[in-house]
Amino acid sequence: MADPKKWVAEMATLLQPENIVWIEGGEEEHQQILDALVKAGIAIPLDRPKSYLFQSDPRDVARVEEKTFICSPTKEEAGPTNHWMAAEEMKKHLLQLFKGAMKGRTLYVIPYSMGPIDSPFSKLGIQLTDSLYVVAHMAIMTRVGREVLKKIEQKSFVPCVHSVGVPQGHPDFDSKWPCNPEKLIVAHFTKEREIWSFGSGYGGNALLGKKCLALRIASVLARDEGWLAEHMLIVGITNPHGEKRYFLGAFPSACGKTNLAMITPNIPGWKAETVGDDIAWIRPGKDGWLYAVNPEAGFFGVAPGTSEKSNPKAMATIATNTLFTNVALTGDKNVYWEGMDIEPKPPVTTWLGKPWDGKEKAAQPNARFTAPVAQSPHVDPAWEAEEGVPISGILFGGRRSDRIPLVTEAKSWAQGVLYAASISSEMTAAAAGTIGKLRHDPFAMLPFCGYNMGDYFQHWLSFQNLPHLPKIYLVNWFRKGADGKYLWPGFSDNTRVLKWIFERTQGKSEGINTPIGILPKKGEIDGAVDEILTYDPEGWKEEVKELKHYFTLFGHHFPQALSNELESLVTKI
Ligand code: GTP
Ligand code: SPV
Ligand code: MN
After folding, report:
1. Domain count of the fold of the chain
2. Which domain holds residue 523?
3. Running DSSP on this structure, what letter comes out for residue 265?
4. pTM of the complete model
5. Ligand 1 proximity of 302 Cβ (cutoff 6 Å)
């Protein structure tokens, strides 16, 4: 039995807030929070029902992986892809950093649940924060309040401590977006199951239920309990005969999960419904199928590139009751961003609050919208089903301008795991770093796996004897031609790929057997140029050589079964 009140009292002694407010949940409280944000000049009310705009400090616009730590008992357990610090040393540092961090501010206590409150699979947390923006967002992205607290009192919770790190006395105390980038740190104690985050108010750095709990801590719980916590969308597809199948998709940050989760099929008779757009918790069911649950309650989606044409379902979802961060403001108090495909009403104010001259970016490239899943007109009827939805196929992909074909079916679970481990992607604005630079991002989990990635590959392999394993696909929507233009239209046209995959899982589409896997036969995917449906042996030889080198990073943690898969590929291509 947990005693949250005792813990909060202890933390208050450390944080020294002016006062403490417990979040109860509910519509009325949510509106009061938004009203308070408007009154403080932090939220700009829009001429769009129940919607608000926030502009962050330009130094605080994305996740900061360099300052994200896994504090597992040993460095080896964190593995070669995580930043590690010994738990004791980190705790010492944090206790210094957080001492008096909330002076002059209110401490908000947010009891929250990842997953439906009554589900036995859900995980509970309490986030302490001094950011009202964070409170408003947690209320959309998770289930919060009194009902959750009752559960917590019966069970346990993951303690999550968050501060923007700008107490009274700091020169930026009165800033509308206080943050402390010099001292920013996001720490995960994977054995103790605790999260501490200092210095940022943005996205995954600050909404601790999302990447910190539902991926980094959850991946460790999943390893220990025999399930999977993944950076994946979940979508339900129905064919013209009314047959329905569910699919998962893992793509790195800002590489198309939200868009595929909300796809509008452009082949007559096909239908798609959204279960989740960012995180999937996956468990084997009693019947030998894998079942997936979306632990979140909201979408925190990339705004730039979203339009009536590219993603009409997202546009419908965010028509009302939506919080926008770092998009531009139009003359008629509405929102605008690059790729929205409308003529904004002038005068347009950029995300930096300056008049827009049409030359610089109106919206920050990682600008986001935040809206409840439940208000999506295309939400899947089973999106809150306790046991989740049964999975027929899993898509893995990245942003690859060359080599990787449009779609390849792995010949076995082990080959699929190898392909997932092999994902590389050109970096995006979702994380601080060099945009466009190709980097390895195994399973799209590089920033989110809470333990040794080599052991994580092994954990995936451990499912290989399930009687109803999903088929695994490597996909790439981002191939470019010599002219630098995309060779595939993407978005709704991805339906043609989904149709092929759907029919493969039914044993219908034929495909063609190649050394790298099953590729679509000529004519099985309309309109796709040969270049993206075939594989280039020379390019793949290079790819495999480079992969072999990359995997040495994991030393003896790299599973022998994957080395064998890779070797067998080398001999075939
Ligand atoms: P996170 O929320 O950061 O995890 O990202 P995500 O994977 O959900 O990415 P999202 O769907 O929001 O897409 C990010 C960007 O990729 C947007 O600017 C989209 O317009 C673009 N995009 C998505 N799907 C496609 C596609 O099929 N083709 C092309 N060319 N671009 C796409
Ligand atoms: C991602 O970067 O993968 C996101 C956005 O989904 S954030 O929640 O900020 O990490
Ligand atoms: Mn994500």
Report:
1. 3
2. 230-294+383-572
3. -
4. 0.98
5. yes
